[in-house]
Amino acid sequence: MTINNINKTTPTPTGNNVVIQQRKFKFIATIFGKYEDKIEISFTNKSINIKVNPGTTLQKKYQANVNFDKFNPKETLKAILVISSVIDKVILSESDKIYLKNAIGRLKDDFKNKQVSLRFSTTNLIDIKELHELGIELKDIIVRSKGPVSFQNPLPGPFAESAERLIGSVVMTENNKNEFSQEYNKDMQTIATLEGFKLQIIQTKISINPEDSQVVLSDSSRVTPISKDVFAEIKNAYGYSAPTYFTDKQHVDYHRGMGSAMDGVLAKDMKQLNQDSIKEGKSYFEGGNILTATSTDNSKVIIIGASSFDINNAIFRTNYVTYNELLEAKTVAGQTGIREIINQKTFEMMATDLNIRPEQMLFIPQMGLHIDTYLRPGLNGEIFINDWGTSVKLLTALLKLNNLSAEEKNYYSSFLEHAQAMGKKHENVYKETYKKLTEYGFTVIKVPGVFYSKKTLNLPAKHINFMNGVMGTGNSGTFYITNGSNFPRLNNIVASIFKHFGINNIYFTGRSLDSFSFDPAEKSLLKFDSGVDCRTLEFPKDDNNK
Questions:
Q1: Which residues contact 344 (CB under 8 A, 6 or more apart)?
Q2: Nearest 5 degrees, angle CA 207-CA 208-CA 209?
Q3: Which end of the chain is more exposed for a tag (fewer CB within 10 A), N or C?
């Protein structure tokens, strides 16, 4: 089998339909690559030629060719029929049969109805007029930057998570305690092939998400949080009251597990990585509560959830300053002065660990366990943020449609009720967040990105999150890998918004291995509040992984 230039940028042929077919045949070619003794595929930037070798259970030689420069629907139909015949007659694994049958079904739909699947790419962009009819005005979801922010002698800090970044490799973990990891890893393998980055899957004995266990710096070195269990001491530290958010037993247990991760099993498991440079920090952090982005003037800024500062402020008090030193400082500076000194020392401690200057850190209000569940850096200093008000407008418009199924109506109503409650609860917090982000040079894009429904007598609980994803630039240009949902309308609407703001390809992951549903994505979010970004650790492209 020969797949030529499969990892190189493909020139755009004329017509969206051509691009759609090209991408889907490339996906099929990738799967067939495992069976080169039975199938010969020649794939170039301009055409695909499929030959099925005679023998085994095949009675004749099958052959088809699709030329992307001179797109011919008859050739496409012939290719579809060839691949359909191959699937059942060539010995394939059950999972590959499922993927291929799904791909063939989508190609047939494309040919017949010009419908486009959101399985691995989105090209049926919803235009501005249609978004308007769904209650979304582009001018209303943009909060403009208040001007560029420049820093004197800025440091490189962590590997940025904006869409401009070039990803060289992605690390994911797999173990029998981390449900749904196989489904996500299967999808990511295909995306890695299409976009040109390496994927490394590490077998681990614990289910801590790799995103939370460490932070990757710009030079590919890694820094891990302090491994000491700091939570036991914090509550009573010099009269300091621990942040309410961290007093919940479930959260404390999680953070304790994270804090000791590098001192235990995960540290040994992660040594399988090629990168050798790793250090333990003095501060405590979780990668999901840190997002590194570039603002409108290309300045690197680390956005951090406020609770991370609170916890590190307490860590500094309990671990890095003595009682006598506090008394001495109080005598010189007074109680207010002590607080200011400790705050500044906390900033410096965190900045040193993350190889950034203190002024490059932006602390925003905490609205969940981690900020990466509702915030995502985009292109050119843009930040996508889940906005409950935008969700309310969208869901209200959707509920007026005449072609909704009963299930859609019930869930949209439940999603709407939750969005209204959360919007009211966090109204002032969002205003403060928008103010902070725009003052630091970011333009905020308000997205209907999170949907939640509690379990009722008639409906199972649902959790959909389009914000916990991975941005980057690859073979297709800019791309965004996020979590799929079983609501095609929502997938398409959100993908279209991202595409309107410069993201070329949107990939939906977390599909079941034995069906065509996104149950694993929804259940993972419901059970663990974790999506594809939590499950990945990205490294920059360099001379070793071009």
A1: 358
A2: 110
A3: C
Instruction: For the chain, give the number of residues.
Output: 546
Strand 39-43, strand 2-3: pairing? parallel
Strand stretches in 53-188, DSSP E: 62-67, 142-143, 167-174
Long-range Cβ pairs for the range 427-436 (8 Å, 24+): 429/365, 429/367, 430/367, 430/387, 430/388, 432/364, 432/365, 433/364, 433/365, 433/367, 433/385, 434/143, 434/385, 436/362, 436/363, 436/364
Query: Please, are residues 159 and 538 in contact by the beta-carbon 8 Å criterion?
Result: yes
Task: Give me the mean pLDDT over the 157-170 stretch.
Answer: 93
Burial environment of residue 423 by CB neighbours within 10 A (0 to 12, 13 to 18, 19 or more): middle
Could you tell me the end-to-end alpha-carbon distance of the chain, in angstroms, rounded to an integer? 24
Residues near 357 by Cβ (< 8 Å), separated by ≥ 6? 151, 153, 154, 155, 351
Distances (CA, A) of 104 to 24, 69, 390, 507: 9, 22, 36, 18
User: What's the CA gap between 358 and 346, in Å, rounded?
Assistant: 9
Confidence of residue 358 (pLDDT cuts 50, 70, 90): very high
CB distance 542 to 221 below 8 Å: no
Ramachandran region, residue 437 (left: φ > 0; alpha: ψ -120 to 50; beta: rest): alpha
Cβ–Cβ under 8 Å, residues 133 and 396: no
H/E segment holding residue 472? strand 470-474
Class of domain 139-236+245-278+287-540: alpha beta
Cα 274 from Cα 257, distance rounded (Å)? 25
The structure tokens 């939570």 sit at 231
Match 């949907």 to its residue by tokens: 451
State how far the Cα of 8 lies from the Cα of 49, in Å rounded to an integer. 18
Q: Could you tell me the two tokens for 464?
A: 């959909």
**Distance between CA atoms of 258 and 224, rounded to whole angstroms?**
10
Q: According to CATH, where is 3.75.10.10 located in the chain?
A: 139-236+245-278+287-540
Percent of the chain past pLDDT 90, that is, above it, reads 30
- Are 353 and 285 spatial neighbours (Cβ–Cβ below 8 Å)? yes
Helix (H, G, I), strand (E, B) or coil at 460: coil
85, HSE (Cβ side, Cα atoms, 13 Å): 20
Any idea what DSSP says for residue 246?
A: G
pLDDT tens per residue, range 288-326:
999 999 887 778 899 999 888 888 888 888 788 776 777
